[in-house]
Design goal:
Distance between the termini: 35 Å
Strand order of the largest sheet: 12-11-10-9-13-14-17
Largest sheet: 7 strands, mixed
CATH class of the largest domain: Alpha Beta
Number of helices: 9
Number of domains: 3
Oligomer: single chain
CATH superfamily of the largest domain: Nucleotide-binding domain of ferredoxin-NADP reductase (FNR) module
Strand content: 25-35%
CATH architecture of the largest domain: 3-Layer(aba) Sandwich
């Protein structure tokens, strides 16, 4: 069992957890992830390690409650425990002094990009971060990024905060303004990562994306996380999760991620039904 020492929402349906896991905290590097299971009959889900502390032996994960399991996870509070947690998994980010690095996070992808932005700054890069969200409430970790990056540009689809537009439009604005960019890391929804790759490809700017396909065991044995990169099959859990954005087959990745949409919806409905019954019971008990 892994004890939760801190749990708080940092955005709509987006929750930050600090979890006691000293061995993982000691070994993890930027870009790596864990796989956890909330309870005995639960599914295994991969989550990037957003931060860690060897001082108190904790790792930080940030979870968006989209599916049944992530909603169950987001219902947990400080003092609760997670049944299984394994890691660090995957290859660490390639960290070197590129020169000027632009780190782009879309939605909860910002949490995945955060540790790599921090590591890139530590080795001497000028780090510019573009953080995107549907509206102001969906822009996360802006303050934390301001503490470690040279420049931070929030963007919102509705113009409620920062730049009014998409992260790709802000990236293009920087390029058109004469910013010499040597490296780009983009993490977020598949359409966003593909759009970033389309912007940087003609300029031959080295661009990396972090993929988040369906995973089961995290060791490459199940094959669930297959993706096509450079016209070859890769297993994201062991060969990645980061890959050359200009070589990723985003269409194939999208199709594979939608393979179990029906089952995911069934699982989500079960969670909603359970929560509804619990709420009704609590309301009944409160009326006594």
């Amino acid at each position: 069992m892994y004890k939760i020492v801190e749990a708080r929402f940092i955005g709509p349906e987006v929750k930050l957890f600090r979890i006691e896991a000293p061995k993982i905290a000691e070994k993890r590097k930027a870009g790596q992830f864990i796989i956890l299971r909330v309870h005995e009959n639960g599914e295994r889900i991969p989550l990037t390690i957003a931060d860690s502390s060897t001082k108190d032996g904790t790792i930080t994960i940030i979870v968006q409650g989209i599916g049944g399991t992530t909603q169950q996870l987001n219902a947990l509070e400080s003092g609760d425990s997670i049944l299984d947690l394994v890691g660090p998994l995957g290859k660490a980010s390639n960290i070197e002094n590129f020169g000027t690095a632009v780190v782009i996070g879309g939605g909860v992808g910002t949490a995945i990009a955060f540790p790599t932005a921090k590591a890139l700054k530590e080795v001497g890069n000028k780090v510019i971060t573009i953080v995107g969200g549907r509206s102001k409430d969906y822009v996360i970790l802006e303050n934390e990024l301001n503490e470690i990056c040279d420049e931070v540009y929030p963007t919102t689809d509705d113009g409620s905060h920062g730049f009014h537009g998409f992260v790709t439009q802000k990236l293009q604005e920087l390029i058109d303004g004469g910013e010499k960019i040597d490296f780009v890391l983009a993490i977020g929804p598949i359409p966003m990562m593909k759009a970033v790759a389309d912007v940087t490809r003609p300029l031959n700017i080295e661009t990396v994306v972090s993929l988040n396909p369906i995973m089961v065991d995290g060791t490459g044995m199940c094959g669930g996380c297959r993706a096509i990169v450079d016209n070859k099959t890769v297993f994201v859990c062991v060969d990645g999760p980061e890959f050359d954005a200009h070589k990723v087959d985003f269409k194939n990745l999208t199709n594979r991620n939608h393979m179990y949409s029906i089952q995911e919806n069934v699982s989500l409905e079960k969670v909603k039904d359970h929560k509804c019954r619990v709420d009704k019971l609590a309301e009944k008990e409160g009326m006594k």
